[in-house]
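User: quick one, sequence for these tokens?
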């Protein structure tokens, strides 16, 4: 919460918040250097992909239009919504090193078999090149069938982000923009309609991709984490 003094009174702004979750991963520093190193100095003759899944995307048919597009009106969402016929999971791989284009696929669920199918899609899309995959520690990414497949495909190099550190996976920013621009304010009569809207948004992204540039170095991040941990430790002892 942020407040400012104005005319002798305090103005509270509860809508403005800053959050930073501290990771308890014992290998946090090691994983941080590994992932940020790929952003700052990607290996030559290789592709770096930031990969994640957005699961349980539900098509919602809203009972009234949002006022977010009305000039002078605050953005809102109709609390009265109707669930459509189902949900879907969206798998994404952002080409971090080259141009920021996004490879996507829809799956009915979010399990190790769907993750393995998406790895095979990546394999077919980027043949004959070393692949560095940045992803989180979700159990499906480490399933024994996945590990066996990776062992047979040594050109795949998996880099796990630290636990509770989704901010290190840059494709999460694309998911954020997708949610805010396409999903949260949309109204969909069916899952198929939702899927079509996401494909349209994806096409717009790839028609005018924005190359990704990472600017924070590991030392600055570690210093910020140390400050956050100190504040957290102090609050727990008070």
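Assistant:
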């Amino acid at each position: 919460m942020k407040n400012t003094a104005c005319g002798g009174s305090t103005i509270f702004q509860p809508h403005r918040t800053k959050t930073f979750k501290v990771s308890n991963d014992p290998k946090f520093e090691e994983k941080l250097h590994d992932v940020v190193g790929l952003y700052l100095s990607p290996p030559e003759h290789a592709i770096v992909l930031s990969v994640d899944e957005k699961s349980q995307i539900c098509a919602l048919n809203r009972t009234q239009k949002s006022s977010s597009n009305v000039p002078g009106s605050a953005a809102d969402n109709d609390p009265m919504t109707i669930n459509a016929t189902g949900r879907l999971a969206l798998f994404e791989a952002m080409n971090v090193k080259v141009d920021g284009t996004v490879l996507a696929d829809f799956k009915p669920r979010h399990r190790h078999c769907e993750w393995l199918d998406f790895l095979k899609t990546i394999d077919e899309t980027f043949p004959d090149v070393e692949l560095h995959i940045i992803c989180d520690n979700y159990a499906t990414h480490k399933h024994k069938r996945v590990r066996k497949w990776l062992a047979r495909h040594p050109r795949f190099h998996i880099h796990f982000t630290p636990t509770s550190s989704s901010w290190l996976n840059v494709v999460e920013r694309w998911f954020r923009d997708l949610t805010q621009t396409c999903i949260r304010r949309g109204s969909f009569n069916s899952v198929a309609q939702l899927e079509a809207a996401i494909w349209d948004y994806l096409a717009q992204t790839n028609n005018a991709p924005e190359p990704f540039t990472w600017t924070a170095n590991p030392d600055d991040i570690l210093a910020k984490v140390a400050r956050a941990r100190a504040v957290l430790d102090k609050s727990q002892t008070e």
